[in-house]
Known about the structure:
The protein has 137 residues and is mainly alpha-helical.
Amino acid sequence: xxxxAPLAEIVDDFAAVEGQDKLQLLLEFSxxxxxxxxxxxxxxxxxxxxxxxxxxxxxxxADREHVRLHFSAPPEAPTTRGFASILHQGLDGLSAEQILxxxxxxxxxxxxxxAVSPLRLRGMSAMLARIKRHLRS
Length: 137
């Protein structure tokens, strides 16, 4: 699986830990999700209803060579925030072409299937699918 360097590094970080340590790493990512920019209101962001917790995203394609991604999720939703943070850290600032080339199921390489419910994993898949849909339109 070929991934952009920032996302590949995150996948490697998850591959280096086992069991509950994967959840701990996901929790660390949840704490690193940056706040949305002041000029962006959550009401103007797209909801991702497939996520178990409220999640909103914004895909700024003004510069297709440096796509900007913004996510909003409540602090009491660490799994959802962790997934959003992984996508933010792994894809923000990349070109539309690089993001579109990310395999839809890349998240399986994180090895979280034993630690996180399939329903929650589908939420991450839905986030990536919505980002790609924005890039294709």
